[in-house]
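Summary for the lay section of the report: proteins are chains of building blocks that fold into shapes. Here we show the chain for D-methionine transport system ATP-binding protein and then a coded description of the shape we predicted for it.
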Amino acid sequence: MIDAAGLRKVYRSDGRDVVALDRVDLRVQEGEIYGVVGQSGAGKSTLLRCVNLLERPTEGTVHVDGAELTAMSGARLRGARRGIGMVHQHFALLSSRTVAGNVAFPLEVAGVTRAQRKRRVGELLELVGLDDKAKMHPAQLSGGQKQRVGIARALASRPRVLLSDEATSALDPETTRSILELLRELNQQLDLTILLITHEMEVIKQICDSAALMDSGRFAESGRVLDLLETPGSRLARSLFPLPSTEEGDGVAITCTRDSDAPLMSELTRRFDVDVNVLGGAVENIAGRSVGRLNVRIQGDKRQEALGYLSEHGVLVEEA
Ligand SMILES: Nc1ncnc2c1ncn2[C@@H]1O[C@H](COP(=O)(O)OP(=O)(O)OP(=O)(O)O)[C@@H](O)[C@H]1O
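The coded shape description reads as follows.
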């Protein structure tokens, strides 16, 4: 759905070049939620702005829904952009307009008739759970409600793709969760493809199917979240699901991302006559799946065979 290839963006600042994007390849499949996470200055906002051509990349191409945006300009580009909604960290609402007036704004710009606007605004406010707030002004709303207005406005022209620029960064944890749940519902109900940027691992954990870790204008890692969790040494996996640290130096970290019918631990002790000691760990819901990460100590003559057995059964085994 989104295919950006070889994206480079160089800004000229104070007489020197700043490379904000350094040959980034991004592929977001139709219907998925893709999160880009990284520290401040990593290039996340630049990437998002290059995807909808608010910023023209210095090099590289961007295709969205099969159309090459980098080959367009003027009215054609503005038309293509209607298929891409955007939500902002600080909501970007018009304070003089009501909630309904804010949501109607892009429809007015697009020349939609008054009757159609009214119907569409009603549908959109219902979709985001604000049908009783139509006549209020942004100043009368909570942060979460403002973001719901921002989301409704972004969906006004029925885009197939939604870009989210730190949509939950200004919100408290509980409101963040409810906005993320809303995004997940919209993704499923409307088959909406979502590309979001964030600096919060929780966002990736809660709703993303795929993710990339951005560092100095590049993707240090990218892929399906569950695949990354099964990738030895993945930084993203470690940040997503850190293992509780233990005093023991000989622990083995094991990560299990699939449901297993086999009682693996008791099988280990039976088959290989090893002692298994759980030093710490947790089970969390990540990308819609229960993922377990344990720090264990396995002792016995057949320790290596036991670890091999775990690997054969799809468990990621990382020795200290
Ligand atoms: N218009 C600009 N002119 C010059 N340099 C810029 C411009 N916009 C961004 N940069 C630089 O490009 C780099 C990437 O910035 P960008 O805003 O994309 O990072 P980010 O990961 O989104 O950071 P943050 O989370 O703080 O918004 C930074 O070094 C930044 O200073």
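Put simply, here is one thing we learned. The chain has two domains: 2-225, 241-319.
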